[in-house]
Each structure stands twice: as C-alpha cells, then as structure tokens.
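To the wet lab folks,

You asked to see what we're planning to order before we commit. Fair enough. Below is the target structure as tokens, and below that is the sequence we designed to fit it. If anything looks off to you, flag it before the synthesis order goes out.
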C-alpha cells in the first residue's frame, strides 16, 4: 500500500506597528524590561474599551493584495473565549466568520484566509523556582494568521512555502518574521492518505506545535509522516491531536486532544464596530497595490530573465544587500559585463562578507542592512574592477585580491592594482625579457620540455609569473613561452 502526505500550514506573524492592536501601548519586540508596555486596555481593566489599529488592518490587506487574495468588504472581530493566564480578558479578539483576506496563492500553494488577531502575553517558566512568570508586553500585539489549504505534499514544499512567506512579509515591511524570536510561528497540520483514495478524501490530521525554525519544521513534518505511516501499517489509527516537537529527542509527542471551534464560543465583539472596508479611504485594492514594493517573486523573475543563474538570483532576492548592490552595478551596464559582475558578486563578494559577518555574527538576512555602502565598495568602483578584467588589464586571480582589498578599505580598484603591481604587463619587451630569462636559467627543464615532458611547461610558466609578480595575462604569457621554446 502506498501513502502520500497532506500538509496544511497555519502561520502567525507579529506585525511591526508602532502600537498594539486595540490600545496605545507600544508594540516593541526589543523591550527587555517586563510589563512596561501595558495599559488598562490591554490589561483588561473594567470599563476600558478597545480601538482598532488601522495600520494593522492595512498591513494584513497589503499582504492580501500581494497574495492576489480577495479583500473583505464586510469584516468584524470575534471573541474567542478560553481561560489562560497569558490572556487578561479571558478571550482573545480574533476573526472567525469574516476574515480580512480570503483566497490567493504563494509558490503554488492555495491560501484559505488571512485574519487579524491579538497576541497573548509571554509566559516564562523559571526552572529554579518552578514558577511561571508572565510578561504582558506582548499581550495585545497585532498578530496576523495565515491558513493554507491542505495542498502541500512534502516537508520540503512546506519549508519552501514558509520561507517565501517570511521573505514576502519582510519585503512588505509588515513583520520581521524571525522564527527564532517567535515573530513568526508555524503550525503544521499533517496527515497521510492512501494514493488510491478518491480525491478529497483525507486522513486524520495531527497538528504540530512549538516549531522554532524552518529546519525544525521540515524535520518535525518528516518525522510525523513516518510515525503515521508506521502506525497505520501496523494496524493502528491516527488520533486527531496536537503534538509538540521535542528537539532533544527529535520526535513529536502527544500534547492534547484538539478542541473543536465550538468550545471557544466565538461571537462578534460588542465593543468593536464591524467594518465596511469600502467606506474607509485608502483601503481599496488599487491604493494598497500602489504601496507594494517589487515582490520577491517578481524580482526573481527579473533576474532569471536577465540571464542570471538561478542560485544567484535567489541570493539577490533573499539578501537584498547583495540584490541592491547587483542592481546598482547592473544599472546601465552592458549585458556581458553584468553577467561577469554577477559572478564576482555572488561568489567573491559574498564570501568576503560572509566571512566578515560570521565574525560579527550578524544575521545575513537582516532587513536593517540594505544600503549599498554596507558592502564597503561602491558600485562605481566595482564596475571599474569588472572593466579592468574585461580589458585584460588584471588577471582573475588579481581581481579577487583587489576586490577583497577594495571591500575592506573602500579604495579605488585601479589604484590598488597599480600599487600592488597587479596590472598585467602589457609591454611586449618586458614579457620577452622575462620569458628569455627563465629559459636561460632553466636549461634542464627546457630540455625536458623539448624531450616531450609537458609538465615542464607549467613549471616554466610559473617561473615567468613569479618574475612578473603575477602581473601578466597567463594565456598570452603561455603562448609567448611556447613560441620561444619552439624556436
Ligand atoms: P481545524 O478546524 O481543526 O482548525 P481547519 O479545517 O481549520 O481545521 O484546518 C486547519 C489547517 O489544517 C489548515 O491549514 C488546513 O489546510 C489543514 N488541514 C485540514 N485538514 C487536513 C488534513 N486532513 N491533513 C492535513 N492538513 C489538514
Ligand atoms: Zn495597552
Ligand atoms: Mg481552524
């Protein structure tokens, strides 16, 4: 019997607004002191009333436009009732029947909906005392929830989707979406079905929680698929439940049997107005669409169309420092130079900065570091370097050294090349003299070569290069050497 995987994702992302979802308390993920960004509203004091954060609504609608979704006309907020100490009101304000956004796709995965809700407080378990401490700074922070249809077929595809969504949220500037910081949280729903089952028939799903990175998500999904298949093959049945990921043991474990939505007693919040978005100025699709930057998908296509290698295109899309730098270099540059430049950016320049980044342990994808001068070398200087390579004024070996130096110091590549004696000797007389000198000083090697020992040529060429301190075009030098040896 063959089985296949069905996966649907539920992804939460904290929105980067100035204030919380329903009050004026600051929304600051960087606040280290506990319980300072709070007020009577988010602490649920009696007699307080919530006010909807317009920026949060706009953010979710912009995500909807980027996904090609339908934006709601009518929308409302509902109370999701349950008790937990991280939820001061005893209910979470969320959206049930009328999400802000429905439909749409990303990376070929159909989106069910995107809605807006509020985050809970963070609970900190103190192992020493066994106590649980609660920090309400996060309580009431705007939280976007995106739900996909059960159409994902593998752990890898789930990872690819979640990574692309993170990128999109960052491009839109709506969320930092850092998984390790809990700014983006992924829950994976996983089931298996027989390949012979009719379309639309699904197995019982299990929901996996406490996933804190893309890699963990992929591992947890793979583990869970295997567990379900072994269970079913040995005659067991999958129970619908929530399972956690145990990172130490690398397994999923049963946490609780999932509540049905009826248990939450959803109902529209009587303290908040329902919204007719068409009546709100600036919330129509055209106005929102005009606020979107070039999206990751479009940017990737632009590079591929320009003949950039897929891996390099992906790098430029994912790390906009290099993408923006490439764009600046490519702007108005001829096609062949652009392709050569891309090789030097995606290989050599990236390596230089990865080495430096790993020393400073800086997040390579940090959205704070988008400016071109982060790269030390200006796009104009970089073009000078490429021009010198194409004019054969420097060897590719020398180009790498010059680039490293220029990136570190910001100095002009032409000046670096001249100072380090890396300009290839164009002077025919100097080349002749160097080659003749090497031939005169190595009679035995020359004899070996003339007796048919090909390897001797490499040695002689190396000697010539040494005399010229690397400042020669190796091909031209090789030709000259052969010519003289044949004479
Ligand atoms: P629930 O009512 O349990 O919350 P939903 O129908 O709202 O379930 O779906 C929640 C998530 O689970 C969605 O991402 C959906 O695509 C996914 N899902 C639903 N059924 C399955 C299934 N049989 N296998 C895998 N994922 C599923
Ligand atoms: Zn508040
Ligand atoms: Mg649901």
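Sequence we intend to order:
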């Amino acid at each position: 019997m063959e089985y296949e995987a069905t996966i649907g994702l539920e992804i939460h992302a904290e929105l980067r607004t100035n204030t919380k979802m329903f009050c004026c308390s600051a929304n600051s993920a960087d606040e280290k002191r506990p319980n300072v960004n709070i007020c009577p509203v988010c602490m649920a004091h009696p007699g307080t009333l919530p006010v909807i954060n317009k920026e949060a609504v706009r953010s979710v609608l912009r995500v909807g436009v980027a996904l090609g979704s339908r934006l709601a006309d009518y929308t409302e907020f509902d109370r999701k009732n349950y008790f937990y100490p991280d939820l001061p009101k005893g209910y979470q304000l969320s959206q049930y029947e009328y999400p802000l956004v429905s439909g749409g796709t990303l990376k070929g995965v159909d989106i069910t909906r995107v809605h807006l809700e509020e985050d809970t407080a963070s609970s900190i378990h103190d192992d020493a005392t066994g106590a649980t401490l609660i920090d309400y700074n996060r309580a009431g922070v705007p939280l976007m929830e995106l739900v996909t249809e059960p159409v994902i077929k593998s752990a890898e595809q789930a990872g690819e989707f979640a990574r692309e969504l993170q990128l999109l949220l960052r491009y839109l500037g709506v969320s930092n979406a850092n998984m390790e910081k809990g700014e983006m949280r992924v829950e994976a729903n996983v089931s298996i079905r027989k390949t012979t089952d009719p379309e639309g028939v699904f197995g019982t799903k299990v929901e996996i929680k406490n996933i804190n990175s893309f890699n963990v998500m992929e591992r947890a999904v793979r583990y869970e698929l295997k567990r379900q298949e072994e269970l079913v093959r040995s005659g067991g049945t999958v129970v619908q439940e929530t399972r956690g990921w145990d990172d130490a043991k690398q397994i999923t474990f049963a946490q609780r049997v999932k509540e049905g939505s009826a248990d939450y007693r959803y109902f529209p919040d009587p303290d908040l107005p329902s919204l007719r978005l068409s009546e709100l100025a600036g919330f129509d699709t055209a106005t929102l669409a005009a606020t979107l930057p070039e999206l990751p998908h479009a940017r990737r296509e632009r590079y591929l169309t320009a003949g950039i290698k897929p891996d390099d295109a992906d790098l430029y899309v994912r790390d906009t420092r290099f993408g923006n730098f490439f764009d600046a270099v490519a702007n108005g540059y001829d096609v062949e130079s652009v392709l050569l430049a891309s090789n030097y950016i995606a290989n050599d320049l990236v390596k230089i900065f990865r080495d430096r980044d790993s020393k400073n342990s800086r997040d390579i994808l940090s959205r704070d570091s988008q400016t071109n001068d982060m790269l030390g070398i200006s796009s104009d200087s970089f073009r000078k370097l490429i021009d010198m390579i194409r004019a054969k004024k420097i060897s590719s070996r020398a180009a790498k050294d010059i680039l490293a130096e220029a990136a570190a110091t910001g100095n002009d590549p032409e000046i670096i090349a001249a100072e380090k004696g890396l300009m290839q000797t164009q002077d025919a007389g100097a080349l002749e003299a160097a080659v003749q000198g090497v031939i005169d000083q190595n009679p035995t090697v020359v004899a070996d070569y003339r007796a048919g020992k090909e390897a001797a040529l490499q040695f002689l060429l190396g000697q010539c290069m040494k005399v010229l301190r690397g400042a020669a075009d190796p091909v031209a030098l090789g030709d000259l050497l052969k010519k003289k040896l044949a004479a």
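Structural context that might help your review: The CA atoms of residues 275 and 487 lie 90 Å apart. Residues 296-419 form one domain.

Thanks,
Computational group
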